[in-house]
């Protein structure tokens, strides 16, 4: 009886571990497929991997794209056959209480960038619901970058503070 219980417990634990690995592999593939769709300018595949209420936050402070706006903005790039090419260098995927979120370092035309996102199930399939892209800046370059964008930041802060919607 003891041996049977031990064997059952071992099988149960092993199957739980392998299920998590399969789920992580599936999620990694989903994110990789999304990036590949952009790199190959496949508009339909790219946006079919996003939820109907997806949000894409770009590197510019003004870029908070709701899905329909992002599709309209992106369409000319995809139609021209040159969207963007992001290849994951390193990725972490987290799952907690049915929420899946991730961060990744990317090789891009802008150098190394960071992406982070949330996946949620829509019609039983995991899709990108929220994605944030940012350009990474080595700490020793922050002061010069801050100086470079100082005037733009001053102007945009004024615009934000004067905006009645905010």
Descriptive notes:
The chain has 166 residues and is α+β, with helices and mostly antiparallel strands. It has a single domain, classed as Nuclear Transport Factor 2, Chain: A (Roll). It is 47% helix and 33% strand. The chain has a six-stranded mixed sheet. A hairpin with a 2-residue loop joins strand 3 and strand 4. Mean pLDDT is 89; it is low at 5-18.
**CA(first)-CA(last) distance:** 67 Å
CATH topology: Nuclear Transport Factor 2, Chain: A
* Shape estimate: globular
Q: Find the structural class using helix and strand composition.
A: alpha+beta
Mean pLDDT: 89
Number of H/I helices: 4
Radius of gyration: 20 Å
Q: Class, according to the CATH hierarchy?
A: Alpha Beta
Question: Descriptors for this entry?
Answer:
Nuclear Transport Factor 2, Chain: A, NTF2-like_dom_sf, 4 helices, SnoaL-like domain-containing protein, alpha+beta, 33% strand, single chain, six-stranded mixed sheet, SnoaL-like, 166 residues
Short summary:
The protein has 166 residues and is of the alpha+beta class. It contains four helices and six strands. InterPro entries: NTF2-like_dom_sf, SnoaL-like.
Write the layout of secondary structure elements.
Elements: H1 2-39, H2 43-48, E1 50-57, E2 64-66, H3 67-79, E3 87-96, E4 99-108, E5 111-122, E6 125-135, H4 142-162
Parallel strand pairs: 1-6
Antiparallel strand pairs: 1-2, 3-4, 4-5, 5-6
